[in-house]
Amino acid sequence: MTTAVHAGLTAAGTSRAEGTAGLLHRVARLLAAVLVVLAGTPLALVASRAHPARRAGITRVWARTLLRALGVKVHVTAPPAVVPPVAGAGGGGALVVANHVSWLYPLVIANALRAGHTVAAFPEGTTWCGRGMGRFRPAVFQAAVDAAAEVRPVTLRYREGGKPSTRACFVGDDSLLASALRVASTRDLVAEVTILAPIRHS
């Protein structure tokens, strides 16, 4: 499954030679990512004692820094009528639901959304390669119903050189290390986040 997915990337129009970063770039990205991850422990201790809004800010900065270290760019779009949640706005929480392709998604969502109490969930229950998606399990939404919180649908996809990419996918027997190496080796990987209109219930 994993091999077929990655091999299909060439058929989509992005060859390995075109999309692969040089050796020095790969090593630099991996070292930077390791340093950011190691810095996360003391930051977590500081954040645990901070105000929720400040804690969210620290998490956002850490996630953004790790994405940059890996060479991943994030593009966020939303329809004109949709306003992304802002910390403290409305005083309520939100359940963010998204399709799930990669272990990068929690980092991307922390970088793209700001809310006082936001919980992210992936109702598919598993990861997909990015060329398709699974059925959303309704049980995941019960927490939002019980808490009277709005649901924020978000779609995420990866592009490489302007074309769909599966290099960030994390499926089958793929290991986290192999996936991280593939991400760090990709020259122009962009995570596209589309924020859709919130779903409210009475």
Average per-residue pLDDT, rounded, comes to 74
Order of helices and strands: HHHHEEHEHEEHE
* Strand composition percent: 15-25%
Number of strands: 6
**Percent of residues in helices:** 40-55%
3D architecture notes:
This is Phospholipid/glycerol acyltransferase domain-containing protein. Helix content is 41%, strand content 17%. It has 202 residues and is an alpha/beta fold. It has one domain. Strands 1, 2, 3, 4, 5 and 6 form a six-stranded mixed β-sheet that branches. The longest helix is centred in the N-terminal third of the chain and has 26 residues, at 23-48. The N and C termini lie far apart (42 Å). The relative contact order is 0.21.
Topology (SSEs and partners):
Blueprint: H1 2-11, H2 16-19, H3 23-48, H4 52-70, E1 72-77, E2 94-98, H5 105-112, E3 118-121, H6 142-147, E4 150-160, E5 163-164, H7 176-184, E6 189-195
Parallel strand pairs: 1-6, 2-3, 2-4
Antiparallel strand pairs: 4-5, 4-6
Helix pairs in contact: 3-4, 4-5
Concise account of the structure shown:
41% of the residues lie in helices and 17% in strands. It is α/β, with parallel strands linked by helices. The chain has one domain.
